[in-house]
């Protein structure tokens, strides 16, 4: 996708986000603090101190606790009433006076977050939108908005820069915090209010693109771009995500991220890792236990069968070896003829593993003939049907004169 018409600033932001080193992240805290100070200054606010969390999991757990305080055994009637609101909205859903409850919940959240910043950003966004309404419509699908919202597009550079460095890792951190079992209701609010440095840098790029398409400049848009542009420097300085709270900013450094084909993946090491040692392992985008990546030889048929997540189980079988899983798992011999031997191994919750064992007609250098296992669809019933399927032929049509 060619983005030249969106102007030099929008392209510069995208290119810098894409070229940031994902593997070796160096956190420059003073640079991040300066970026936040500039952001707050342009919002007309005094800067807030930064409270750094070691990783996304810890930060999510902390913010969730702030949104969902422990049920008060004592305290004011207002505090107990607020807790009742949380229970009604998050646990039971759909109370008869839902809007009133939602309004009260929002007021409670604003006691945790910064109302002043929310209002300032909303006002700036409204002014920018009014100034460049026509230019915004020009940024319609499938142009800049497809990049902005992470939708499929030909821009592999942007997929790597944004999707790889934020969405998947953020979900992993959030899910890990959720699995801790504490403050699960507050996790919903924490996930709604989290802000990404990359996202906000792209917000500046979006409006810079609108400026390039507009008929003239607007002070409101210039102000909006300037207020969000510091997050490009913050991202490059190692900022990943943050929450602007009432009295401080809870900030999380960027993790080291490894991506293959626009998915979190690495065959030997964690795909996501923070300096404090928190690590997440992925296999072609699927979160898996560490042993699946680091020590697949430690896997057993029993532990594979005990895995309840079908995607993870498929990866475990792949790493363990389909042939080994088939034989060691006590597969049933369905058919044995001169064509080969057909095995079937049921797998709970998904289709059977069916493989045909054939003998290579070409001798190895030492004169032996090697066996090969080929996976075939589960509907296949005979060895000949399985071999024919590997040649994309029916059983009746598969009549080789010479076996090769």
Features:
alpha+beta, 14 strands, 4-stranded antiparallel β-sheet, 404 residues, single chain, 4-stranded mixed β-sheet, 18 helices, 15% strand
Characterization of the model:
With 404 residues, this protein is of the alpha+beta class. Helices cover 50% and strands 15% of the residues. It has 18 helices and 14 strands. The strands form four sheets. Strands 1-4-3-2 form a four-stranded mixed beta sheet, with helices on both faces. The protein has a four-stranded antiparallel beta sheet with strand order 5-8-9-10. A four-stranded antiparallel beta sheet has the order 11-12-13-14, with helices on both faces. Helix 1 (7-19) packs across helix 9 and helix 11 packs antiparallel against helix 12. The two termini are 46 Å apart.
